[in-house]
Amino acid sequence: MRLGLDIGGTKTDAVAVDAAGVVVDRIRLVTGFGPDAVIRTALEGIDRIAAAVGLTPSDVETIGIGIPGQVDVGTGSVSHAVNLGFDELEVGGLLARALGREVKVENDVKAAALGAYHLMTAGVPEGAPRSMAYLNLGTGLAAGLVIDGALWRGARGAAGEIGHIPVDPGGVLCPCGQRGCLETVASGSAIARQWATDDPIPARSLLAAAEAGDEGARAIRSLLVDNVAAAVRVLVLTVDVETVMIGGGLSNLGAWLLDEVKRVLASWAGESPFLASLELDTRVQLVPAGFPAAAVGAALVGAPATRPSGAPAGEKRVATWQK
Ligand SMILES: [Zn+2]
After folding, report:
1. How far is the CA of 171 from the centre of ligand 1 (A)?
2. Does the pLDDT at position 288 exceed 60?
3. How many Cβ atoms sit within 10 Å of the Cβ of residue 179?
4. d(Cα 27, Cα 131) in Å, to the nearest integer?
5. Between 35-52 and 91-99, two packed helices, what is the crossing angle to 10 degrees?
6. Residues 60, 50: contact at Cβ < 8 Å?
7. Nearest CA-CA partner of 102 in 70, 66, 64
8. d(Cα 151, Cα 16) in Å, to the nearest integer?
9. Using H for helix, E for strand and C for coil, what is the string for 215-269?
């Protein structure tokens, strides 16, 4: 059994994943704010999810944490976790000392990439994709890359940070210091900045207004769709991943978003034989609503990488998680 936690700004998801790669239990907690409260939330989540499957934290194979911010996967220390109320915290070390065992820590988008890849390949017979990009459309925009069944972090952990590719030289200033980053036009924060509303879900209000014929809303909506499509194109052109899976808060826009992004990709293919040859519109999918991708990925962070190509014929890919 492996345990995974996804510590978010408001809630924490905890899952237990069995040796066959199946999520056998799941609980949700409110995340405390500030360093002490975040560690307390993590410990409570680990205790409760272990108890839910009749175990203690020392009995399980691996425990992993997915958390926003910059993560040093070697030491488990986390920096710039603004939404959680700290700038620097030794998350892995503090949890390991409290529990008397190793705890892996990974950036939440990278963990979600692993979780989404697991979902995509679990139980799939020979021919499952070996590579995938997880495109997270949340408050920000970032991607996680899975290459040959393993996370690709890059030399300094920045692989997949495509939200900070500038796409508009005259655009607004991004918190990263550049101007007109992809994230400033295709993310939850981009919508919130451009579309003033009392709706706690600005995207919902934006779509309703666009549907009702509001020209301003329509312009923001097409900027969003065009740039999500541009993000898919960037991911395929840089790493040629087989599939791009879209997740994060904005993916709750569901089939509408997927259809629109596919429509834009298909229209580009109509103008470019090169893009047409890449069949971009057939390579994008949505993570199913409600699937706890980051928590599942966190549970699998300590597991050996899946290498679908190496799986014996007829055996399910998920079996490769078994020790
Ligand atoms: Zn930026």
Report:
1. 11
2. yes
3. 14
4. 30
5. 50
6. yes
7. 64
8. 20
9. HHHHHHHHHHHHHHHHHHHHHHHHHCCCEEEEECHHHHHCHHHHHHHHHHHHHHH
pTM (predicted TM-score): 0.91
- For residues 266 and 261, what is the distance between their CA atoms, to the nearest angstrom? 9
Amino acid in position 215: E
Whether the per-residue pLDDT at 23 is higher than 60: the answer is: yes
% of the chain at pLDDT higher than 70: 93
Rounded to the nearest whole angstrom, what is the distance from the C-alpha of residue 221 to the centroid of ligand 1? 20
- How far, in Å, is the centroid of ligand 1 from the Cα of 225? 19
| Cα–Cα distances in angstroms (integers) from residue 236 to residues 83, 151, 156, 215, 284, in the given order | 30, 16, 21, 32, 10
For residue 251, the CA-to-ligand 1 centroid distance in Å is: 21
pLDDT value at position 305? Answer: 59
* Pairs from 89-96 (Cβ < 8 Å, separation ≥ 24): 89/35, 89/38, 89/39, 91/38, 91/39, 91/42, 91/65, 91/67, 92/65, 94/39, 95/39, 95/42, 95/43, 95/46, 95/63, 95/65
> Tokens 């298909």 — which residue?
266
Whether the CB-CB separation of 13 and 48 falls below 8 Å is answered with no
Confidence of residue 1 (pLDDT cuts 50, 70, 90): very high
C-alpha 209 to ligand 1 mean position (Å): 28
Tokens for 316, please give them. Answer: 């399910």
Residue type, 203: A
- For the chain, domains (ranges, CATH) are 2-112+291-300 (3.30.420.40), 128-286 (3.30.420.40)
Q: Tokens standing for 135?
A: 């495109």
- Four-point Cα dihedral 259, 159, 137, 277, nearest 10: -10
For residues 323 and 23, the model is more confident at 23
Which pair of structure tokens corresponds to residue 31? Answer: 């995340």
- Copy the structure tokens of residue 187: 């993310």
pLDDT at 192 over 60: yes
